[in-house]
Amino acid sequence: MNAINKGIRKVEISLKWDPSPAGQPPTDLDLVAATYLASDPYGDPAYVVHFDSRSPDGTIYLNRDSKDGKGFGWDEVLTVELDRLDSRYARVMVGVVIQQNPAKRTFVSVINPALRIREGYTVMAEDDFGGVLGATATTVAEFVREGSSTWDFHPGIHGFEDDPETFTATMGRARKP
């Protein structure tokens, strides 16, 4: 990194999908973000942000929350203000969870899902979850900083077959090669 690089400052993670067919229960996807302390970057999350919550300092928040995929444009939007995040945090993991009510669902049953991660107008990553069709949840982004330096972005879709509570507790653990 050169001296004039400001690094990643503020990102927007957007998620959309089409509503369930008539007569079927609604499909509810949720964006979640977990922060990890520099002292334990692969341990338990310091806190998790999801629907009906925000970070204690207001740096991670859900702008839009859909329970059914109805509407125009992006159904869920999560903003992460990395440049304002306290220096004690070294990692932020972002994921997508499929709510499992009334029955178990995986990405194969979600109609036209799409993900976009961007900073300002610059698209950093896009995906359609085609690589995790059997998963009930997936990580979609990892943001990492060393010390007080700038944040690095690591894209990647990694599926899980856990319930939402287990997923949010384990999504930031180191993956085995």
Give a quick rundown of the structure.
With 177 residues, this protein is mainly beta. It is built from 1 helix and 10 strands.
Key terms for this structure?
177 residues; mainly beta; 5-stranded antiparallel β-sheet; 4% helix; 43% strand; globular
Describe the structure.
- The protein is mostly beta strands.
- A hairpin with a 5-residue loop joins strand 9 and strand 10.
- The longest helix has 7 residues.
- The mean pLDDT is 90.
Compile the SSE list and pairings.
Blueprint: E1 10-18, E2 29-37, E3 47-49, E4 60-64, E5 76-81, E6 89-98, E7 111-119, E8 122-127, E9 137-145, E10 151-160, H1 164-170
Antiparallel strand pairs: 1-5, 1-7, 2-3, 2-6, 4-5, 6-9, 7-8, 9-10
Q: What structural class do you assign from the helix and strand content?
A: mainly beta
> Unreliable segments (pLDDT under 50, ≥5 consecutive)?
none
Strand content: 35-45%
The coarse silhouette is globular
Q: Quick one: biggest sheet?
A: 5 strands, antiparallel
Number of helices: 1
Number of strands: 10
What is the C-alpha radius of gyration, as a whole number of Å? 16 Å
SSE ordering: EEEEEEEEEEH
What helical percentage do the residues reach?
under 10%
Tell me the distance between the termini.
28 Å
Mean pLDDT: 90
Q: Major sheet: order of its strands? A: 4-5-1-7-8
Oligomer: single chain
